[in-house]
Design goal:
407 residues, alpha/beta, globular, 7-stranded mixed β-sheet, 6-stranded parallel β-sheet
């Protein structure tokens, strides 16, 4: 099949969605499909290139030009509005490639919605977050989980996150364009049932199938740099991987860890932000800019994995990587984590933001080696349903149904 993949960012930009789109595009190409990726401009990459058999177009958008002129350049996120420059480029690419499926992954979809009928392609939208209802995509109202959208409420919250002008543009744009998305998209693919509910897909009876994020079948075998092992503790350790930010639960984790007596070291791998804690306890080992193969090496040696997200994480890849490595998890009972972690079988679920409950769960696992081994083995078996072979098989079936009009 001819597939056009839309994502505002693509490697070498680093992020969960970027890695997902690259792995998906490569996997589909290896199965004989013709895949073209359309993404936003990157200063170190050609505008058109062949990468691992995938044709990649990197576009300069109207929004990017405007923010660059104003000194606001950076990662080129697509706003939830049709972009004139992107639409012109998409029309040219669609005319040349004649895709049967257009598969979008974020608000870049709004630049193809006006072209959908002309293209004669079927439109698929993967929802990696709460894009349809939340200007921040996180379903967080300031620092707590949102109870539901409201226009003035969303304006205030988005302004506190993006700044007044950008927050207003994104909020108004999202409210204006989501109706067009609902009408134009032939199949929504939320990465968890929590994402389907958070985006109102069930309530509005929109066509959707839950299709989770995935990891490569051999992800647990990735070889790390030879010197990386020396950066890890020799004995047991607990492991957190992710952005070192409050919504990922790092503050709650540090509170819980501070109250643990005789606990093994805590290894924290991630990126620092303006709201990252400035101080870490003595037995916490913080590592930044760690290559993915080294992260997987850390998972293979970890005693317990911790995913204490305060925000309703849609379907965090770090949890999948831990499961594939046979590591039992202590995770928050929210978002997609509740669907990924089988409480009591592959790990333990705790209430988000509850440091004392997190501490008790860690003690339970640290004190019971047999339980850890049993849960780790069960997690590894469960991870098969989140592997590339399983997920891409399902996606191919969805594509075929759409292309033949059976869906």
């Amino acid at each position: 099949m001819r597939i056009l993949m839309l994502s505002d960012m693509y490697p070498p930009y680093i992020g969960g969605v970027e890695q997902h789109v690259r792995n998906l595009s490569r996997g589909l190409t290896q199965r004989g499909h013709a895949v073209t990726v359309v993404s936003m401009h990157h200063p170190e990459r050609a505008e058109v290139a062949d990468e691992d058999g995938v044709r990649v177009h990197r576009l300069r958008s109207t929004a990017w030009r405007a923010t660059s002129l104003l000194g606001m350049g950076g990662r080129p996120y697509s706003p939830p509005l049709p972009d004139p420059a992107v639409m012109r480029s998409l029309r040219r690419i669609i005319k040349a490639d004649r895709p049967e499926i257009i598969h979008a992954h974020n608000w870049m979809v709004d630049s193809v919605v006006p072209l959908k009928a002309w293209s004669k392609a079927r439109l698929v939208l993967t929802l990696h977050g709460y894009d349809m209802t939340c200007a921040k995509r996180s379903l967080m109202y300031y620092s707590r989980e949102c109870t539901g959208p409201g226009f003035s409420k969303c304006l205030r919250c988005a302004a506190s996150n993006y700044g007044a002008a950008k927050g207003m543009t994104i909020t108004i744009g999202n409210w204006l364009t989501r109706g067009g998305r609902r009408s134009a998209v032939d199949m929504f693919l939320p990465v968890s049932h929590a994402v389907a509910v958070g985006n109102d897909l069930e309530r509005l009876r929109l066509p959707f199938q839950v299709l989770p994020n995935f990891v490569p079948d051999d992800v647990a075998q990735a070889s790390a740099p030879s010197d990386y092992g020396s950066l890890l503790p020799e004995g047991p350790f607990c492991l957190f991987v992710g952005a070192l930010r409050p919504h990922k639960g790092i503050n709650v984790l540090l509170q819980a860890y501070n109250r643990l007596e005789g606990a093994p070291p805590l290894v924290v791998i991630g990126t620092k932000w303006s709201d990252t804690p400035r101080r870490f306890p003595p037995k916490v080992i913080v590592q930044e800019d760690v290559p993915h193969a080294a992260v997987m090496a850390a998972w293979r040696r970890a005693t317990i994995g911790i995913v204490p997200s305060v925000a309703p994480d849609p379907c965090p890849t770090v949890a999948l990587e831990a499961m594939a490595s046979g590591v039992p998890l202590v995770a928050s009972r929210n978002g997609g984590l509740s669907e990924m972690v089988d409480d009591g079988a592959t790990g333990l679920l705790v209430e988000p933001g509850d440091a004392d409950q997190l501490r008790r769960a860690l003690i339970t696992l640290l004190d019971d080696e047999a339980m850890r081994r049993r849960m780790g083995e069960a997690a590894q078996r469960r991870a098969v349903s989140f592997m590339a072979t399983t997920v891409i098989d399902r996606l191919e079936g969805i594509y075929r149904q759409l292309a033949t009009g059976a869906a």
